[in-house]
Hints:
It contains two helices and no strands. It has helices spanning 2-34, 36-62. Helix 1 runs antiparallel to helix 2 (36-62).
Amino acid sequence: MTGIILKAAGIWLVIVLIAIVNGIFREKVLTPLLGSDLALPISGISLAMLVFVVSFIFIPLLAR
């Protein structure tokens, strides 16, 4: 039981780090180029896709 909790916490940590990098990228790159009205939804969609990819890759680790 403890092993699955540690694995899930590790996956969660990866997702948190990706979200932070996504926010920095939005503020430093997307907002100056596109404006906040367009940068925010693009950032949200890209973060959702990244979370899906991370989940798709790492969730099988929970079964081990």
